[in-house]
Amino acid sequence: MEVFKLLLAKCRTIVRLRLLASPAATATTTVTKQPRTVHGAGMTAAGTAGTAGCSATGTAVGGFGGGERDGAADEPMRMGSFTSAPQIKNVDYQDDKLEITDGMSMADLLEYCRIARGEDRPPLVKRKFLKPVEPLNTGSDLTDGFKMLKLDAISKTCSEPALTAPQLRIFQWNMLSQTLGMHNDGFVRCPLEALTWDCRRYQLVEEILQNDPDIICLQEVDHFKFLQKILATQNYEGVFFPKPDSPCLYINGNNGPDGCAVFYRKDRLEMVNHFTRVLEVWRVQSNQVAIAAVLRTRDTQQELCVTTTHLKARKGALLSKLRNEQGKDLLHFIDGVAQNRPVILCGDFNAEPIEPIYSTVLNYRPLGLASAYADLLASEAQDENDQNAANAVGRVAVRTERVSNRSSIGSCNGVECGQANGGARTRAEESAAHEPAYTTWKIREEGEVCHTIDYVFYSQDKLTVRNCLMFPSGEEIGIDRTPSFQYPSDHFSLVCDIELQGTVADQTTQPTDTAKEPVPSHQL
Prior knowledge:
By secondary structure, this protein is α+β, with helices and mostly antiparallel strands. The protein has helices at 2-19, 23-26, 106-116, 146-158, 178-183, 197-209, 224-232, 317-338, 356-362, 372-382, 389-407, 427-432, 474-477, and strands at residues 167-174, 215-221, 236-242, 259-265, 269-281, 284-297, 303-310, 343-348, 369-371, 440-444, 447-451, 454-459, 463-468, 494-500. The protein has a single domain (106-509), classed as Deoxyribonuclease I, Chain A.
């Protein structure tokens, strides 16, 4: 009887999800059917944005999700943008007239961005690394624009022995879709001018480049061509994969669909291959996507799998369950691509650490993932003999105060650890207790929102986290929160220095041609 009840409940949930199917299933909007199998999917330097989401090359790999629904009986239904309005099909065109000088130095580009967005505008909010290194002994703020870039570039170089342990800086950020931020997100305390693309686009570039990343993972990207053009001057190359039914496509003046993107520094890394996937929930395609890029370090020839995703937003038990199912599909996808390589998983999961998806990621044994920020903050808190112990205590006190302040607005990551199991914390609860107090802090019409929903996960047995960029205090952010003239997104970037363990000789498998590797399909 209990088994029957469980099956009946699951069937009811599937029916509810199908009722939430996208306009592709209920409206008259026409969507082009995509090929079933392709490797290296998404958009590259030679690609264009497409008009209805995925272009002809923007599909899942092998058995990972199939094509767009066009009425064919063998195609899966898709959960999309929850609207029956017709799409406004634009392409990524708004930055076509932008001219950037090739070969521009990093310092010149940052100065160009500062002038272009307005010299009278305040600088970006200042942030510090957990373990700052000041090789020049200046005693100055390491996150003060280009000053941070110069000093930290030196520290990265000095701590990176050749051919032994390459250290990569990972940059994760939901950069806020321009179309959604301007027309749909309701940031009631943000000046309208601060949301304009003329202002935000240069702030976005500043935030990325002043952190000097080797790998960049982005969500809500709806101006990929702009990023592609301007980051190329600093030797970055990237790929993009749009949401198949992006909510941007239902807003006048859009610049095409939003989606995920991965960039990498070509002088340090080369791309072996990349794969894309439209995430599924019980074999129903959703509107969320992922990119998995297999990258190889140029100096040591070590390979790793870098994945970025953006899970479904909105609150409620059903949406929490949907995110968890998307996460299961995502993890199986990554497992098939990674093929025992180290994994870095970055994204906006739209879920606090108390949600099921958080423990699902940490408990998926084939990948052995851990949270980069939680691990490093836990290690810092436990290392009482460290020379920075006194400062660590101060940081913990500040974090505790932030959590206390957030509780008054109904949002807090504090996990009631051990309450249900006799005082013993689970691995997920232990990790959740050390996550940052927040990764997004905004004020919308419905009130103030401040919580942690963005993460960098990594293969704990194959990688080591060395440093991470901390988050500004409420006072530093300002009473109007984000976005603002001081910060262009409602999410803060996550920046981690991650070291690859061992050398090429230690790898169990030699570099391979991922294009020839089958990516297996898994089901839970």
